[in-house]
Structures are given as C-alpha cells and as structure tokens.
Amino acid sequence: MHELSLDLVRGHLPVLVSMPHMGSYLPARLAPSFVPRALDCEDADWHMDRLYDFALDMGASVLRPRLSRYVIDLNRPPDDAPMYPGAANTELCPTRFFTGEPLYVPGCEPTAEDKRERLQLGWQPYHQALQQELARLHQAHGQVLLWDAHSIRAQLPWLFEGRLPDLNIGTADGQAAHPALAQAVMQVCSVQADYSHTLNGRFKGGYITRRYGQPERGIHAVQLELCQCLYMQEEPPYAYLPERARRLQPVLERMLRAALAALPRP
Predict the structure, then answer these.
(1) What domain range includes position 66?
(2) Which of 47, 114, 138, 261 is paired with 14 by a 20 to 30 Å CA distance?
(3) Rounded to an integer, what distance in angstroms lies between the CA atom of residue 130 and that of residue 102?
(4) DSSP class per residue in 181-219
(5) DSSP E strands: which ranges in the chain?
(6) How far apart are CA 266 and CA 264, in angstroms?
C-alpha cells in the first residue's frame, strides 16, 4: 500500500498545496470488502491536480496521494476524533458514503488491526512528507503557506443542509493563519461576481489545517473546499469540464497568490 501512497513535487516558493482527497486507488486485496458502488470512488476530490496545474507553474510544492479516502482519510486525526461535533462526520477509515449509505459489505468493516495498518502504511507517509516539506520551506523562507485543496458535491444532505457556497475558505476560525491571509483571500472573492463564497462556514478546515496551521511559528494554513460543479460533472463519469475549469482557475490562482503575498515578513 505504501509504495503507491503519494507524489511530491518540490517547488521554490514558500507554499505547499496539499490535495489529501484526490486519490482513487483501492488496493485489490481490499476491494471485495467494499460494496460495488464504492469501487467508483465517488467521494474523491476529482481532478485536483489538473485544476491546480497553475500551482506547479508558479513554483509551489504540491503533495498528492494516490490512495482513496475510502481506505484512509488523510484529513482526519489519527485518534479519529470527530472534526465537526454535532454534525455528520466521516471517520479516519470511513464506513459510509457522503450520502450516508454503508461503504462496506456487512461484516467486512475495518477492524482495529486494519485501521492500525492503514494508519501506518497510508496516513503516516503522507503526513511525514507534508511535515518534511513544510520544514524545508520554513527553513528556506521563514514563513510558509499551506494551502489545503478540496472539492465536494454542492448538495449532500447527509453532511450539510442546502447548497454550499461555491468557495468555502477555512482557517479554523482564524487559528490556523494570520488574519491578513484570510482578508487577502476574501478580498479576491469579493471583487468577482461569478462565485459565492464564505469564510469559516460549514468547512472551517480539517485536521491538516488545524494541526499544521501555526501562525505563531510562521506556518499558515488555509483550506479551500470548492463545489465540484464549478469544474466537473458531479455524477458519473465525473468528467473534467475544461471550459468551466478555465473560468475558475484564474480566481483560484489569484486567491493563492493573494494569500502568498499576505504572508508576514520573516
């Protein structure tokens, strides 16, 4: 499992773009445990690498997993504590689709031993790579932006009411990044009329944002959860829609550049 777990491209700018949910690889030995529907990996953050291709051109570091979040969720804490108490949550080793139905054939849910193995072989390598790259960039620049890139279907009643805003920015209620970064990103959002947006709404930032965002140490984390309909089909075959994506990408790039420019001086 570990040999297929991630790809890291190292850049020269003080920014790391993390894409913890874009993976769609399910190890063959695990496939029989899942219901057939799960093999399509419908809850992946599809096409994140293609949507954010401008980040590589900018010189950002980019970290991408290959494992599906159905195996292990890289944006959940290792102790599996709920990220949003009082709301529906998916676990470290999810057992339900985003629609609430079971992921596993009855009786085939991951055991405690399964979870420990997945934590060791899937979760830990990603977070080790993330930590090491943040440390490298911090040593080189003094201040670092961690941009946690996500996407999700616009309507998922099991997880949230109604339709999400198009662009959902999260800084853990201001704890994960200097306020100037959120202000800069929201300023970009406010001067365009194509996409609705919110700050620290339903998605305030998952484990990665909350764990690694330490502005007092010069590491600033911002999560962007965006609606998939802005750039792709939300239903099978989950196709990338280039025209929609080309409309969205300049806004994303301006948001990323604005956050980068707002980093405090070392």
Answers:
(1) 2-261
(2) 47
(3) 31
(4) HHHHHHHHHHT-SSS-EEESSS----HHHHHH-BGGGTE
(5) 6-9, 15-18, 61-65, 144-152, 167-170, 197-199, 219-227
(6) 6
Single out the residue of 4, 6, 14 nearest to residue 55, CA to CA.
Answer: 14
3-state secondary structure of 29: coil
- C-alpha 227/C-alpha 234 separation (Å) is 9
Verify cis geometry, omega within 30 degrees of 0, for the bond prior to 157. Answer: no
Model pLDDT for residues 217-253, shown as the tens digit of each residue: 999 999 999 999 999 999 999 999 999 999 999 999 9
Residue 266 located in a structural domain = no
Q: Average pLDDT of 41-61?
A: 97
CA distance 175 to 250: 27
pLDDT tens string 185-209:
999 999 999 999 999 998 999 999 9
pLDDT of residue 83: 73
